[in-house]
Protein: Glutamine amidotransferase
Amino acid sequence: MNWSLAFEPLISLPLLGLVLAPLLLLALAGLWFRQRGAVFRFAALLALGAALLNPVFLDEEREALKSVVAVVVDRSQSQDIGERTKQTDEALAGLQQRLGRFKQFDVRVVEAGKSEAAEERTETRLFGALESAFRDVPPSRIGGAIMITDGEVHDVPAGTPEFNAPLHALITGNDQEKDRRIRFENAPRFGLVGKPLEMTYRVIATNNEAGSVDVRVSVNGEQVSVERAVIGQAMPLQVTIPSAGRNIVELAIDPEPGELTDTNNRAIALIDGIRENLRVLLVSGEPHAGERTWRNLLKSDASVDLVHFTILRPPEKQDGTPINELSLIAFPTRELFVEKIKDFDLIIFDRYQHRDVLPILYYDYIAEYVEKGGALLIAAGPEYAGESSIARTPLMSALPAMPTGEVVDKAFYPRLTDLGQRHPVTRALDGSATEPPHWSRWFRTIGVENPEGEAVMKGADNRPLLLLDRKGEGRVGMFLSDQGWLWARGFEGGGPHVQLYRRIAHWLMKEPELEEERLIADGRGMMLEIRRQTMSDDPGPAQIITPSGKAMTVKLEGSEPGVFLGSIETNEIGLYQVGNGDLKALAHVGPVNAPEFTDVVSTEGRLKAPTEATGGSVRRLAPSSALGNLAGGVTLPSVVPVRASGAATGNDWIGLRTTDDSVLKAVSRVPLFGGFLGLGLLLLAMGSMWYREGR
Structure:
C-alpha cells in the first residue's frame, strides 16, 4: 500500500482564504488575549477549514517498471574466424538464461554486422546498434548493456557513452592469437597507361615479429613480380598500368602457420588508367568538299594530338612558280614515316593516292607499322579505284579489301549490317533504330572485292561501306565512301558523324570499351554485375570464383545486340574472379581493404576506455590459460542486479542497474470529512463552541 494525503477544496482557494482569513485573525486574537471560549472557537474554525479543504487519503497502486538491458551481438565477418561464432552463440545462450531469472530486466538482443549495405558490413558498428536499442527508453530505465564481440569495434566513441549505465564487453577469441597482414600505404587513384607508377605498402605482424617475406605483385590477375618486404617497414613499389580504365593491383603474401586468417594477406588497389594524348597523323590528298571533316573532329578531341598534312602540290605539278616564292611546307616524309612512325597511335589517309610524294619503300614501312601494333584508317574516294590507288603499292598487304575499279554514284542510306548491329563501333548508333535510318543519304560507294575483316556498314546495293580488320598486332579500318561530310554539313538533317568517326578512331587505337569480345565485372554495393560484349549469339554462362574459393555460375541474359548482362548478390567482401570462354575479369565487391579485415586479432584494448568510464568491465570469454576454453568453451560471469549508486563489476560478476520507475495502475480515495463522519466532527466542534459560549 502507498498512502498519501491530498486536499480537494470544496471552493476555490482565493474564496476560501477570503472567508477563513478574518475568522482566523479573530480566533488568534482571542487566544492572544485569553478570552473565554477562544480555544473552542479556534477548534471550530479549524474544523470548518478542514471541511472546506476536504482532505483525502489516497492509496496508489503502482507497478514497478523493468530496467532495459541490451545484449549487442557482433555478427560481423571477423566473428566467423576460428571458434568465435561458437563462443558467441554459447555466450548469448548463457546470458539469456541468466538474465531470464530476473523479472526486473527487459532484455533486448541486437545483432550487428550483417546489414545489407556494403559500407555497414565492412565495419563493426556496435555503438550505433546500441544507440538504436535504447532510442525509445528513458535514461532512468537503462539498466546497462553487454557486448559480445572480438573487440575490433570501429565506432567506439571518443568520450563516455551517452547513457548512464554500466557497459560490459565479453571478448571472443583468445589472447594467444597471431596474424600477419599487408596493406597499401600510398596508392594513387590514377596512373598513366604504360608509365611506371610509384606506390608504397607495408607488411604488419602481431607480437612485433621481425624478418622479411615475399610479396607477389599482380596486375589485373597476372603476376608481374615478386618483391621482398621487411616486416613493419614501408616498402616502395613500382608498377606499370597496362590499360585504360579500371586496373586492379593486388599484393599477396603466403599465410603463416597458425595464422588466424589469410583474408587480409592480400591488399587491393583500384587504379584508373589514363592514356596520354593520342598522336594521330592525318594525310589528306587533293582538297575536296569533306577534307576538313576529319581534321575538325580530331582537333576538337582534347585527348588527341593531331599532325595534319595536305598534299597541295604533288611533284609532277609544274606551273613555273619559283621555289623561293612558294609558302608551302615540304612534306617531311623520312621524319614521319621512318624516324617517328612508331610515335603515332593512328595514321589516316583521307582520299590519298600515290603520286610519288612518298617513296614506294615507305608504304612497306607503314604495312610493317600496322603488323607490329599500329592503326591505319583509309577514307577512300574515287582515287582508290584509279590507277594511282594506294592499293597498288606495298601497302596492299595491310588493306582489308582491294578495289574493283568501280565507283557507284547512287543515292543510298548507310545501314548497319547484322554484324554492325552487334559491333561496339556501330551498335546503337544514333538514328540506326528506324527504317530508313534517321540520317541523310550518301551518293557514292567505292567497289571492292574479297573484303576481309568485318563489314559493319553497307552502302548502295548492299556493298560494304565500313570495314574493320585486324592485321597482325595492329588494326585497319576502311571507309568506302567520301560522303561522310554530308552528315557534318547537315544535309537532309545530317547524321551521327562525330559519334561514328570517334568510335572508329578509338577502336583502331584499341580502346578497351570498344572491343568486340570483352568481359567486364564490377561490384556495386554487395552486387556483382557482369557485362559481356560479344559478336556471338550466346556466350553461355559466366563462371565465378568467390574470395573464399567457392565456384558458382551466373546466367547471362541479352540486353541489346552484342551485349549480355548478369548479376548476383554476394555475401563476401573481396576479389571475385569471373570467366567466360577465354576471357577473364576481376572485380572487387565491397569497399577496398575494408576495416573489418585490416586487423582481425581479438583485443580488449578498444573497449577498455568506454566500459571503465561507465563503471563496467571488459573480459575474455575464453582466456588462453584455460586449456578447455581453447577448444571453444566459454566462461561467463554471473549477473547481479545493483542499485544506481552501487558497484557494477567484480572478479566473477557483472552488475546491471535496476530502476525505481513505476507506472500508476489505480488510486483509492478516502475523504476524511466525507459522509456522516465529517458532518459529525464538524457539528461536534461547532456545538462545543456554542456550548462554551452559552456558559
Observations:
- The first helix runs from residue 13 to 32.
